[in-house]
Structures are given as C-alpha cells and as structure tokens.
Design a protein that fits this description.
Blueprint lengths: L2 H31 L3 H29 L3 H9 L6 H13 L14
Helix pairs in contact: 1-2, 1-4, 2-3
Length: 110
C-alpha cells in the first residue's frame, strides 16, 4: 500500500474531527443560546461535504488494508462521534503503518 493512501486518510480524519467539534460548538450556540443559525448552517454543510470525502478515503484505506467489515464500519462512523476520530486515527495509523511500502528511488548507476 502506498504511503499517500494513509496520508490522505490521516489528513481527512483530523479535518473531519475538527469540523465536527466546531459543528458541535455551533449547535450549542444555536439551540442553547439562540444565536449563530447562519454559521451553524454553513459549518454543517462544510462538515457534511468533508465527511463524504473522509468516507471515500477511509474506505479506500480499509479496502487496501483488507479490514473486516466491522472494523471498516467503526472507522467510517468515527467521523460522526466527537473526539472519536482522533483516537481511531491513531489506532489505524499504528496498525496500518507496517503495511505501507517503503518506496525509495532506485540508486542511479553512473
């Protein structure tokens, strides 16, 4: 498996997790203090789009790492639980790092 597959997943896991925390904060302000409705809408739409990208990259990583369905489902759902994606990302990286190919250019013969 190429390192770029893992890197794409890691970036989107962090982006999705941060956006979910921002969305949770916006929801507290919207429903708790009746303010920030427009911002909450914008953040929710952005998080939804980024979550779809996260799903694509996580599914790609899971298929290349040959995960069982239950593990793949847990990784896919971790983007919907605040703080879960941070912990799941660390565990996924620890488990998939040995599968990453060490791609180095061949030495040039002179």
């Amino acid at each position: 498996m190429k390192k770029s597959v893992l890197t794409r997943y890691r970036v989107m896991a962090y982006v999705t997790a941060v956006m979910l925390l921002v969305l949770s904060t916006c929801m507290v302000f919207k429903y708790g203090f009746d303010m920030g409705e427009d911002l909450t809408f914008l953040v929710s739409q952005t998080h939804g789009f980024l979550y779809i990208v996260y799903l694509i990259f996580a599914f790609d990583l899971g298929s290349k790492a040959k995960w069982p369905f239950g593990k793949l489902l847990w990784v896919l759902l971790s983007g919907t639980i605040p703080f879960a994606a941070f912990f799941v990302e660390r565990k996924v990286v620890r488990e998939t790092l040995p599968l990453v190919e060490d791609v180095r250019p061949a030495p040039v013969k002179v």
